[in-house]
From TrEMBL:
Name by which UniProt lists this protein: Helix-turn-helix domain-containing protein
Disordered as annotated region, ranges: 1-20
Native organism: Streptomyces telluris
Feature: compositional bias, Basic and acidic residues: 11-20
Length: 192
């Protein structure tokens, strides 16, 4: 049995709402680190209202994926963490780094869904994943994004207002990525 096994959240948190909860905890930890600089799992638990074991697990996961690092400390059992310091000559902005983390968490959640789909209740064993390519101007791409946001707006308050959720409602990941398809670097003509 490894340290990760001992400090992993219990199995009941690894099934229903798993991806949403993990994303929520990791995002809260990153926000806290951005606010206070360094934090231990115990301090994070006290500030965020999660268990120290859950915070410890997710802090290690964030470190494993290169988003945070151990902060220097002077002995003892306390293990403080901080946001990973990036080389400014090679690094992206904080906004780009957070975007990369969000996309990584989305991808991780998708892979978990694919692996566990057969264990979901029958009515939930499908997804609505799709993709399309459309030739758009930058302004049209922004309008499409705004249309998607407006279509989702009636459902957004249900996260903060559980009583607004209809019977049978569950957290569903809604991921939309609009980006231009750039030509291959080897394609000197500039045509896609």
């Amino acid at each position: 049995m490894t340290e990760d096994d001992l400090n992993s959240p219990p199995d009941r948190t690894r099934h229903t709402g798993d991806a949403l909860r993990e994303h929520e905890v990791r995002t809260a930890l990153l926000d806290l680190l951005a606010e206070v600089g360094t934090v231990t799992a115990t301090e994070a638990a006290a500030r965020l209202g999660y268990s120290s074991g859950l915070c410890s697990f997710h802090l290690r996961q964030l470190a494993r994926h290169g988003h945070i690092e151990e902060a220097p400390h002077h002995g003892g059992r306390a293990r403080p963490w901080r946001l990973r310091r990036h080389d400014p000559d090679h690094g992206a902005s904080a906004e780009e780094q957070f975007g990369d983390l969000a996309r990584g968490l989305e991808d991780e959640s998708w892979q978990r869904w694919l692996a566990q789909r057969d264990h979901a209740p029958g009515e939930w064993r499908h997804d609505e994943a799709f993709s399309a390519i459309a030739y758009l101007t930058p302004e049209e791409m922004s309008r499409v994004a705004d249309t998607v946001r407006r279509a989702l707006a009636p459902y957004q308050d249900r996260e903060q207002r559980p009583l607004a959720r209809p019977d049978g409602a569950r957290p569903v990941a809604l991921i939309t990525r609009l980006f231009p398809l750039l030509p291959d670097a080897a394609d000197e003509t500039g045509r896609a």
